[in-house]
Amino acid sequence: MTDGPAHPFPPPGAPVPDEPVRTPYDGAPPPPSAPPATPYPAPGYAPYPSAPGPRPGMFLGAAHKPGALPLRPLTLGAMYDGAFRIIRFNPKATVGAAFLVTGLAMLLPIVVTAVLTFTVGLTYDTSGELGSDVSTSDALALLAAYGSLLVSILLAQLGVVFVTGMIAHVTRAAAVGRRLGLGEAWAATRGKRWRLLGLSVLLNVGFLLLLSIYGCVSVVVVVVFNSVAPIVLWFVFTLPALLALCCWLWIRVYYLPVPALMLEPIGLFAAIGRGWSLTSRQFWRTFGIGLLTVIAAGFAGNLISAPISVIGNVGIALAPAYGALLLVLTQALALLVQTAFVTPFQATVASVQYVDLRMRKEAFDVELMREAGIIPS
Length: 377
Known about the structure:
Residues 1-41 are annotated as: Disordered. By secondary structure, this protein is an all-alpha fold. It has helices at 76-89, 92-119, 136-175, 182-188, 193-225, 228-254, 257-263, 268-278, 283-318, 323-362, 364-372. It contains eleven helices and no strands. The protein starts with 75 loop residues before the first helix and ends in a 5-residue tail after the last helix.
């Protein structure tokens, strides 16, 4: 019995031969049904295309990620990771914008209080009370100092409204791998700024109206019953109901209209309707992420601003003659730090949730892939 042909493959560890290893079929044409001799790619590998089409590595359901976000329905971790990436790579249009508008607003009470401190001697007792001999001029100076602080807070909130609109555009651009600077983000809001302001006013007036109605009804209940038991029962049952209603309205009405208004060709009321439709059947998930974001951002903001408040209290104790100025200064700095770092994170997470809900419900990821050049238009 004759030996068969040598095995076509060398044993493991053998050196690479100079000549190709011959097989028993060398020299013979392949059968007619045999496919052309084309190497097969390894499982999960896609060769680089020579024409526009899906990019390599995005195979069998793997997510495209041309920018800060994977273009697929997002998990909580992916949302937070994307939010931090967006802030990190667009610092001027996020943290910088919030710092700028809040800082400019906080200059007003600092300047007013400094002028009053060095002209009329406005002061603040270390016990937290006003000076013992308060004259009319002292009262007016105090009113001017703290009135200017209240006005500056309102101005800062007004500026933050525009910052949230800018962050919506920053998030949309970051999803496709583009970075927006401060000027580009501000220019992107052109044509929608008055609508954005009107949306903020409408939503806040609606919330104040709800609280006013509840307060008026509560006063009527107290006056009519004039007894402890029914009044206690009223607040025991209605306060949790009011809190639940506010949470529901926050998600369904207040949470997503800003990114919808900024990123879609719609008006004010249509933006509220878009927020309503996007959160339909997604309430608890959206509420959980939003609530967790508010709690985490609030805790971080208080942690950051706490040293400033401590330094301010120490300064007031050491220099009571400048107590009013130090108090206003530390409050302004604390608000500046909180707004500059907390507001961009909350606004970015809300914008990311808007993108996520559109990818889940409207195949928005396909539109983003076309814009990023991942798939042909």
